[in-house]
Specification:
It is a single chain. By secondary structure, this protein is of the alpha/beta class. The protein has a single domain, classed as TIM Barrel (Alpha-Beta Barrel), CATH 3.20.20. It has an eight-stranded parallel barrel, surrounded by seven helices. Helix 4 links the parallel strand 1 and strand 2. Helix 4 packs parallel to helix 5 and helix 8 packs parallel to helix 9. The two termini are about 35 Å apart. The protein binds flavin-adenine dinucleotide.
Amino acid sequence: MLIRDLIFWLSTKKTVTEAIAKRGMRYGFARRFVAGERLEDALAAGRELARDGRRISLNHLGENVSTVREAEQARDSYIAMVHALEHERIDGNVSIKLTQLGLDLSPSLCLGWTDQIAAAAQDVGRTIEIDMEGSAYTDATLEIFEAVRKQRDNVALAIQAYLYRSERDIERLQPLRPKIRLVKGAYREPKQMAYQKKSDVDANYRRLLEKLLDGGFPVAIATHDPAMLEFARAQLRARQLGEDRYEFQMIYGVRRDLQAELRRQGYPLRIYVPFGTEWCPYFMRRLAERPANVWFVLRSLLAETTR
Ligand SMILES: Cc1cc2nc3c(=O)[nH]c(=O)nc-3n(C[C@H](O)[C@H](O)[C@H](O)COP(=O)(O)OP(=O)(O)OC[C@H]3O[C@@H](n4cnc5c(N)ncnc54)[C@H](O)[C@@H]3O)c2cc1C
């Protein structure tokens, strides 16, 4: 836990993030988790993943924009991504973060921009997924999600098992029965709001997964945890659900062994593929999830500098 806190703390220090941002792509260590800086890089990764039938969800990295112009650029980029997926006939959708679409500036503008992306995707028969960010944004994210979802059924939402409130949020969404991406949660949250112990988060993940499956929600089981995967497979077998009701999801570059195993077993799998120049906060969260990744970064830096 200490190392995790240290990584989160470092991620708030501009000098540290700037140093990492300057070296990450050059030294190649960011490439493990980020497909590249350009959309073409992400599409190339998508084509590679499609070889064994993996679907993708593209994310143009960026969060907490501070101007209308930046938010509109993000919207335009997502609409272009939907068209590129269609043009290239890649089995994929897009994952968006509402703070990249101006949630800090104006929730109503953010709602409008989100709806425009959803509409563009719907026009070509594709879906969008809304990531869940830190707890300061949970209420606003749910409200915007509900408003868009009431108009269109091609929108999914991530729900975090570490938050105590998530069970109630699922109950609130029951009438809409949207596709839910169930994740453990990637931010640092206080004990007043979130389970702190892995065993408690895992127990809630299992509980929420059963609730979603029994409640008739289409579910994206988004985890790399072998115990959660085993539990999920048993639940799916017991319920004999069709493939329209579930898929597994994993992150680009994480547990590629388990990704391949799921595909070998014939399970539907979608890979979250991030790209873009603003990769540092995303990269730091991946480090915090698994401190061993820090050694991976240091090793690649050392290998480069001693060469
Ligand atoms: C497709 C997808 C979308 C996501 N969207 C969101 C979102 O919208 N909001 C949000 O808060 N979180 C999101 N997450 C992140 C999630 O909340 C967790 O932080 C992350 O998935 C790690 O949890 P875990 O379930 O894999 O289990 P953990 O218990 O954290 O890890 C289990 C095992 O997985 C492996 N592993 C996990 N993470 C890493 C890593 N970074 N590097 C290498 N190995 C690793 C390790 O072997 C580890 O022992 C998403 C995750 C996925 C897979």
